[in-house]
Design brief:
single chain, about 600 residues, alpha/beta, 14-stranded mixed sheet, two-stranded antiparallel ribbon, globular
């Protein structure tokens, strides 16, 4: 399971809204918090039948499917600007470009919102790697994000270093100075006997509708433990390598779904050394490159058989500042109903990306779809009763920083534990230290709709365990069945920005999308380019999302909410019940 999925599972568990009960000592404060957040019984008083404007359905379908500009936006963002690493010059260009596009289409109050300091600004200028002895070979390789430059070409002997635990470090001490280190064992390369591009079958969609009665995240803790073990080991490897002063380090590219990692590279934070290589105090001081597994494998096997290998490489990168801030792009279509115009329906996706490709499917697709949603509605001169707000986030790839920062600023937050065993953990794993404190804006947000699962068309929606919206969405989707939108599941889904809304008690939703070749080939890879977008699917996504957003903005009631979240009660909720065995003797359970 890849790093992103480990993070996604952990974030889903730690950010998801909890049950709405409390112990006797804080019932009054709990009730006050819930009432100030707008969560009360009236949230559940929803009409049995939705009032749908089928004329608007037709207008949105015609504009979105027959007169689409989603691929125009894709070209401008993905080809015109390129990869958008948070804090980089390209990210700044993307923020400004999306703000200006929103203004041109007729949105109001288009602006950039600063969510705080991120870290180092960085961009890759050029990277190449080749073998010069015992044969010549050109590698498919790129610098890992925030790698320093090699300051010109370097030519050095290659050495294989495999460190699985602390004890392995000692055997390489004093042997790596000036060498090109191949860090890590050669991984298995499975046969590619399955299609890389997949769509949901009817059977799979039916299975997705069923809610798993067993804990779907039963193995999550084991995955988190493995991740933390890896991070702890890296914290020891990095200073060791720094002291050894290698010429450079090369790491092997990971695999993708169905063996999709063959012939390409995945270049993300999982390939970098350390959890926060974008902070100056934890920066990597030597060049780090990730290479295609086939290139890595050849050198690894030669070294294993005691064949000397000489590599030549050049890593040219540029840092643009140590304290760059992150920004979100925000704009609105103002509401027209005097009673409802201050309420908000939000749509968005993350604008940042990694750097191996041009960030097309992750998440250029979700960003240009959100732009197209706003263009469709402004082109139709829609007069929504509620205000419709778009937000395009940065910092998602490093930990939902943009959307979480926005939620903290506008909606509320809860403190994280500062206990000795918690303070050095990543934020998505740290325990809550207190209840959710909400701000007045929180109760004004009806819902947030997000797209961040690639270019595949929408097949339905996750309710995120909000059963109260099931019947609402079912009615919205009936006129969309001919577009393939048929499936509603009460399951959670994680790994992206709707979690930042869910965490503060706001209905946040991610759509069910066909996978395409997202998990196998394009997600965080050098294949994540314009060519891997599916134009017809993007038209469908924008049309469906525009209808969902418009419906939410027009209905009499806000979208119903789940019970008010109580993250501070999770340990209490998960504590085993005491005194279950009447004949048990005192002492610790084994």
């Amino acid at each position: 399971m890849f790093f992103r999925r480990t993070v996604a599972l952990a974030a889903a568990a730690l950010l998801a809204a909890g049950p709405s009960f409390s112990n006797g000592s804080d019932k009054k404060s709990t009730k006050a918090a819930e009432e100030s957040a707008g969560w009360n019984e009236s949230q559940m008083q929803q009409p049995a039948s939705e009032s749908l404007d089928l004329g608007m359905y037709n207008a949105i379908r015609d504009e979105g499917l027959e007169h689409s500009h989603v691929m125009d936006y894709a070209g401008g963002l993905i080809d015109g600007i390129g990869p958008r690493l948070t804090g980089s010059p390209n990210m700044a260009k993307a923020n400004a470009w999306t703000r200006d596009q929103l203004t041109k289409m007729g949105c109001v109050n288009a602006h950039l919102e600063d969510w705080g300091e991120f870290g180092m600004g960085w961009q890759q200028i050029n990277t190449w790697v080749r073998m010069v002895e015992p044969d010549t070979a050109i590698f498919v390789a790129q610098a890992t994000p925030w790698s320093p430059s090699s300051n010109g070409p370097v030519k050095a002997e290659a050495v294989s270093v495999v460190i699985n635990d602390d004890a392995d470090i000692a055997k390489y001490k004093g042997k790596l100075a000036g060498k090109v280190v191949l860090l890590g064992a050669m991984r298995e390369v499975p046969s590619t006997d399955k299609a890389f591009f997949e769509r949901y079958t009817e059977k799979e969609l039916k299975e997705l509708e069923a809610y798993p009665v067993e804990n779907a995240n039963a193995d999550m803790q084991a995955r988190i433990d493995r991740y933390l073990k890896r991070i702890a080991l890296t914290r020891k490897i990095l200073p060791f390598l720094t002291e050894e002063k290698p010429a450079a380090v090369i790491v092997p590219s990971r695999d993708g779904k169905n063996g999709g990692g063959t012939g390409i590279i995945f270049d993300d934070n999982g390939a970098a050394l350390g959890r926060t290589p974008y902070h100056r105090d934890t920066a990597v001081p030597f060049p780090v490159v990730v290479t295609q597994i086939e290139s890595y494998g050849r050198v690894f096997r030669l070294l294993k058989h005691n064949v000397p290998v000489i590599l030549e490489m050049n890593v040219e990168t540029k840092f643009t500042g140590d304290h760059e801030h992150g920004f979100n792009t925000v704009a609105e279509i103002p509401g027209t109903d005097p009673k409802l115009k201050d309420e908000i329906v939000m749509v968005g996706g993350h604008l940042d990306s990694w750097i191996a490709g041009t960030g097309a499917t992750d998440n250029g697709a979700g960003s240009v779809v959100a732009l197209e949603v706003m263009r469709i509605l402004t082109s139709l001169k829609a007069k929504p009763r509620r205000t419709i707000r778009i937000a395009l986030w940065s910092g998602e790839e490093e930990g939902l920083f943009g959307s979480k920062g926005y939620a903290n600023e506008h909606f509320g937050s809860f403190p994280l534990s500062t206990a000795p065993d918690q303070v050095n953990l990543p934020e998505f794993i740290r325990k809550p230290a207190g209840p959710l404190a909400i701000k007045p804006e929180q109760k004004m947000i009806s819902a947030y709709f997000n797209v961040d699962n690639g270019t595949g068309k929408i097949r339905g929606i996750y309710t995120q365990n909000n059963g109260a919206v099931y019947n609402i969405f079912k009615q919205w989707m009936e006129p969309l069945a001919d577009l393939g939108v048929t499936t509603i599941t009460n399951r959670d889904t994680g790994g992206t920005d709707h979690l930042s809304f869910d965490a503060v008690g706001i209905p946040g939703f991610q759509f069910i999308q066909d996978d395409g070749d997202y998990e196998s080939r394009t997600h965080h890879s050098n294949m994540d380019t314009y060519e891997h977008l599916v134009p017809g699917d993007l038209k469908q996504i924008a049309t469906v999302e525009a209808i969902f957003v418009y419906n939410a903005a027009m209905r009499d009631n806000m979208i119903p909410r789940k019970p008010f979240p109580h993250p501070e009660l999770r340990d209490q909720q998960n504590t085993p019940l005491p005194d279950l065995y009447p004949t048990a003797t005192p002492g610790d359970a084994k």
